Amino acid sequence: MRDEYQPFRAPVAGGDLFGGQWRAEQPGEDEATVLAIHGITASHLTWPWLADRLPGQRMIAPDLRGRARSNALPGPFGLRRHADDLARLLDFLEVDRAVVVGHSMGAFVAVWLAHLNPDRVDSLVLVDGGLPIPRDAGIDPLLMLGPAAERLSQTFETETAYLDFWRGHPAFASDWSSRVADFARYDLDGAAPLLHPSARLAAVAENVMELNGSDGFAEALAGLSVPIDFLRAPRGLQDEPTALYDRAAAADWSASLPTLTVHEVDDVNHYTIVMSNRGADRVAQAVKEQIMESERTPT
């Protein structure tokens, strides 16, 4: 019988990459594995909602370098470095190929993984991320993350204080749950009364500079031939009506990249598109469709 959840640690350059996997027993030869990649200040506990909706499916989710339990890994922290870590993770866990789903910055990592290791990726599900985000000249890129970046410099006297911070987050005003609380607890590092978020600001700052499609990313995305589903949230990081991606920008990429299909996900923001039941329902639908296609298509 497959264990529902197991933590892991895998050797990568400079130390160990941590994370968790669901239903870790090696799948059959024709069964797809799902690799799920979290966002810029998050962790692998972004993904329990999705894991619940993929019964019987092996799913692997790392804490990226510089975040959560992997925050002791040294830099550099660039998107290509994350992709290299994930290729090593797949080797360590004896996974030849995967259907890769990435949220926010994790979607950018997914694109680089597919570009640098095309033999390891069957298809991509990009969740409110992975398409270049234009950056205004002279504007600090960290500003686009708002409180997500600000909290990395804060300290909290108790675990309860940090849970209260997240409970008051506009993105979760209608979606607070025990799973969001678990996500927040896992994010804490240090000791009271100087508890702090686990993501390293240096890692976040390095990665946010890469989200505009620079350093060859836009060309790497345009050159992909694997099937790509892009799921767009209509509301932003603070549940504001201005989305991270507007419809026109997503449509432009769909028009220029024939393998990319855009899907609108109703009534979610940038967080709840993966960290709520209704958001995860829609992500799971896309992942299941990609799994079915990968199992029909010989490698």
TrEMBL record:
**Which InterPro entries does the record cross-reference, listed alphabetically?**
AB_hydrolase_1, AB_hydrolase_fold, AB_hydrolase_sf
Q: Name one Pfam family in it.
A: Abhydrolase_1
* Domain (AB hydrolase-1): residue spans on this chain: 33-182
Report a single Gene Ontology molecular function: hydrolase activity
Transmembrane regions: none
Instruction: State the superkingdom.
Output: Bacteria
Transit peptide recorded as keyword: no
The UniProt keyword set, sorted, is: Hydrolase
Which is one Gene Ontology cellular component term of this protein? membrane
Q: What is this protein called?
A: Alpha/beta hydrolase
Naturally occurring in which organism (per UniProt): Cryobacterium glaciale
